[in-house]
Amino acid sequence: MEKTVKILNESGMHARPAGAFVKMASSFTSDIQIETNGKVLNAKSIMNVLSLGLKKDDEIKIIANGNDEKEAIEGLVNLVNSKFGE
Prior knowledge:
Elements: E1 2-6, H1 15-26, E2 31-36, E3 39-42, H2 46-51, E4 59-65, H3 69-81
Antiparallel strand pairs: 1-4, 2-3, 2-4
């Protein structure tokens, strides 16, 4: 299962939102990846997420495979759409 979302918060996915994203991704048993600009990386790794250097208006595809993939996609999309609470 996959869904594409746009980074909405002004400062992009810096350390705090990346940490929140990884923490939520890690709470699911499904394999979760982020795809952007031809790169596909493990969404449960803070170093991977930060290495993408995501800025406002960048699009990412969240890909989840596993028992709780639907819940994982919904939760992560809602987190991104909420601007990580910023």
